[in-house]
Amino acid sequence: MWRRWDPHVHLPGTLKNDQFGETTVEEALEDLAQATPEIEAVGITDYFTTRSFRRAYAAWQAGFGESIKFLFPNVELRLDIPTTKGSAVNLHLLCAPDQVDQLDALLGGLEFTFQDRTYRGDDVGLIALGKAFRGDPGLNADAARKEGAGQFKVNVEALRNKCQADSWAREHLLIAVAGSSTDGSSGVRDDDGGFVARRQTIERLANIVFSANPQQIRFWTGRGADSPEVLAKKYGGLKPCMHGSDAHKRDALGRPDGDRFTWAKGDPTFDTLRMTCLAPETRVYIGPASPASGTGPGRITSVAADGGDWFADGEVPINTGLVAIIGARGSGKTALADLIAAAAQSDQPFSNEASFVHRAGGLLSDITATVSWSEGDDTHRRLARGFGGDDGARPVRYLSQQFVEQLCASDGVSDELLTEIERVIFDAWPVDERQGASDFRDLLDVRLASARIREASELDTIESIGEAITDKRVLKQGLPAKRDEVLRQQQAENALATQIVALTAQSKGISGPRHGLVSAVLARRQDELQAVDRRLTDLRSLTDAAKLAADTRFPQLARTLQDQHRHVNLTEDQWAAFQPQFSGDVNVILTTARAAVEAQRQQILGTATAPSPPDGSAHPILPSNLDALDEAQLEARTVTQLRAEQARLQQLVGLDSQRAASLTKLQSQVAETRAKLARLQTEITEAEKADAQIGTLVEERVNHYEAYFSALLEEEQQLLELYQPLQAILSSYGRSVAKLRLSIKRRVDVDAWVEQGEQLVDLRRDGPFRGAGQLEKIVRNRLLAAWQTGSSAEAARAIKDFSQEYSDGIRRQSTVRRVDERAYREWERGVARWLYKLDHIGIAYSLEYDGIDVERLSPGTRGIVLLLLYLAVDQAESDPLIIDQPEENLDPESVYTELVSLFRSASDRRQIIMVTHNANLVVNTDVDQVIVAHCDQLEKGKLPRLRYEAGGLEDPVIRTAVCKVLEGGADAFRQRARRLGISGVVPSDFLGQ
Question: What is the pTM of this model?
Answer without folding.
Answer: 0.68
